[in-house]
Specification:
Layout: H1 2-24, H2 28-47
């Protein structure tokens, strides 16, 4: 479980970086990165064991 939480936090950090990049320079590619990050985080949340 700790490993999954660590991965989730790393994904969240990546999402924050991609989100800042999207705000500074909006583009389709930057938006795709943010959407991909969110999809990965959703998958991780659904598969996390509590």
């Amino acid at each position: 479980m700790a490993r999954m939480n660590k991965k989730y936090l790393e994904d969240f950090d990546k999402l924050c970086r991609d989100w800042e990049r999207l705000k500074m320079k909006p583009s389709g590619q930057a938006l795709d990165s943010v959407m991909k990050d969110l999809e990965e985080m959703e998958y991780d949340l659904k598969n996390m064991e509590f």
